């Protein structure tokens, strides 16, 4: 994890961060409340995993400790009553807060966990377009949506930066392709690949083009959530800095009590960013015992 030392200037406790980044990671199961209820899941869940613990800040979700039985093998999973994903990746969905009846775009949707949880949050009412540039990866989206029996989602296969239209969605999620540094725990501490400066800048160019298009696609007053599973300010705050302040404001995000986040950084390696990038939130692994993530919510002006 030596390469993560570059974040010493922006993390509160470097040693705790580096240690946490190597720890095995628990998973989460959430109830498909379109087809079952939290109470019904709580009836059978102790038989599958006695150590499962309800998570207070998400609707109908439970932590499954690392090393416990794998939810993907449970019959209730095959029946579409639950889905399993990484806890921290629920925060972009929480921040998007899509409502029943809305028009929502998930610009980078594959393999589909956030799209599925978004459709469940919408009560399977309205329209969710689950787009991904890679056609092969869309099969994952089809699989999860079909297994969960969700009908409000349709898939699309386009470069997100070229999706046509103007101000036609209530909400857009940009869960951007990124260097993935925050997923080291998911990979059992094995994601040690060193990312070179050039990669950050190549990814940032793609991320900027996706976020700019997302802002154009959302109606005035609508919401864009920009998220990555990486720590690099080049892929996070610097990308937000590329949006003109007259087009979108970066809103404060009030996380529930008991959740610990750090603000977006306003300066990195000599570059200063627009001040409202501080409203974005950073999930460092040691703060809530999760993977790493970055989430920003923008309001189209
Ligand atoms: C972080 S993953 C998304 C994970 C997904 N949101 C989920 O929760 O399962 C990023 C995705 O962006 C897709 N992608 C990369 N470049 C893209 C582009 N220009 N337009 C749309 N999707 C793109 C990748 O194929 C990849 O599936």
From TrEMBL:
InterPro entries tied to this protein: MeTrfase_RsmB-F_NOP2_cat, MeTrfase_RsmB-F_NOP2_dom, RCMT, RsmB/NOL1/NOP2-like_CS, SAM-dependent_MTases_sf
Binding site for S-adenosyl-L-methionine: 108-114, 132, 175
GO annotation (BP), single: RNA methylation
Sample GO molecular function, one term: RNA binding
Protein name, per record: 16S rRNA C967 or C1407 C5-methylase, RsmB/RsmF family
Domain SAM-dependent MTase RsmB/NOP-type: residue ranges: 17-301
Keywords of the record: Methyltransferase, RNA-binding, S-adenosyl-L-methionine, Transferase
Family classification: Belongs to the class I-like SAM-binding methyltransferase superfamily. RsmB/NOP family.
Residue numbers annotated as active site: 229 (nucleophile)
SUPFAM superfamilies (UniProt xref): S-adenosyl-L-methionine-dependent methyltransferases
PANTHER family named among the record's database cross-references: 28S RRNA (CYTOSINE(4447)-C(5))-METHYLTRANSFERASE-RELATED, NOP2 YEAST -RELATED NOL1/NOP2/FMU SUN DOMAIN-CONTAINING
Organism: Thiohalorhabdus denitrificans
């Amino acid at each position: 994890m030596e390469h993560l030392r570059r974040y010493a200037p922006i993390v509160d406790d470097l040693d705790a961060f580096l240690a946490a980044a190597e720890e095995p990671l628990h998973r989460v199961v959430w109830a498909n409340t379109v087809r079952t209820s939290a109470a019904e899941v709580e009836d059978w869940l102790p038989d599958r995993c006695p150590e499962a613990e309800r998570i207070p800040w998400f609707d109908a979700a439970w932590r499954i400790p690392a090393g416990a039985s794998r939810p993907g093998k449970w019959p209730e999973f095959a029946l579409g009553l639950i889905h399993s994903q990484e806890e921290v990746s629920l925060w972009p969905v929480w921040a998007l807060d899509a409502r029943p009846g809305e028009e929502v775009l998930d610009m980078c949707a594959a393999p589909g966990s956030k799209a599925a949880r978004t459709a469940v949050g919408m009560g399977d009412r309205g329209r969710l377009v689950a787009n991904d540039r890679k056609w092969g990866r869309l099969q994952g989206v089809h699989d999860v949506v079909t297994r969960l029996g969700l009908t409000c989602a349709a898939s699309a296969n386009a470069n997100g930066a070229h999706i046509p239209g103007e101000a036609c969605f209530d909400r857009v999620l940009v869960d951007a392709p990124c260097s993935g540094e925050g997923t080291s725990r998911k990979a059992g501490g094995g994601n040690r690949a060193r990312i070179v400066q050039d990669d950050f800048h190549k990814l940032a160019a793609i991320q900027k083009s996706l976020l700019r298009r997302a802002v154009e696609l959302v109606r005035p007053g609508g919401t864009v959530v920009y998220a990555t599973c990486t720590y690099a300010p080049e892929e996070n705050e610097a990308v937000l800095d590329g949006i003109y302040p007259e087009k979108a404001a970066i809103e404060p995000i009030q996380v529930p009590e008991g959740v610990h986040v750090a603000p977006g950084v306003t300066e990195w390696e000599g570059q200063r960013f627009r001040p409202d990038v501080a409203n974005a939130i950073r999930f460092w692994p040691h703060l809530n015992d999760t993977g790493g993530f970055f989430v920003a919510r923008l309001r189209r002006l």
